[in-house]
Amino acid sequence: MSEINHEIDSNFAGRLNILRAGVLGANDGIISIAGVVIGVASATSNIWIIFLSGFAAILAGAFSMAGGEYVSVSTQKDTEEAAVVREQVLLDQDMELAKKSLYAAYIQNGECETSAQLLTNKAFLKNPLKALVEEKYGIEYEEFTNPWHAAISSFISFFL
């Protein structure tokens, strides 16, 4: 894959994560705020109480969604970083086992034996860690998901 295509794929994956968080935040915001406003409106006809209850629910929900997204995406990022460390240790300790592991990943991902062998040899000449992480785990090497982007997207989507 060319460097340009890799960068486009990486940016696209990051944007999909932000979009996912935004859609989830907006959907949760609509449902929960409507529930609070309808519930309070059924108990009182005072417009200010209804408004303040709705606004407080918006703030609480937005912070809750943002916090949840941050924790979730941080965990994903930590897991991705741990996979990179694991593969680096494998490379440092047993290069042949790492080659076999990458070869097996190529086979599992649909390459024929000849192509898998060629790709493995090429990867070990260029950047074996990158190839191992991307083929075995589907992780974009050194392009980890940013938890702040997801949290901010979720907060704004819930709030709006």
UniProtKB/TrEMBL annotation:
Subcellular location: Endomembrane system
GO molecular function: manganese ion transmembrane transporter activity
Listed InterPro entries: Ccc1_fam
Pfam families membership: VIT1 (PF01988)
Keywords: Membrane, Transmembrane, Transmembrane helix
A single Gene Ontology CC term: endomembrane system
Domain of life: Bacteria
Entry's Gene Ontology BP terms: intracellular manganese ion homeostasis
Main location: membrane
Membrane topology, record value: Multi-pass membrane protein
Residue ranges crossing the lipid bilayer per the database entry: 21-41, 47-67
Protein name listed in UniProt: VIT family protein
Organism: Streptococcus mitis
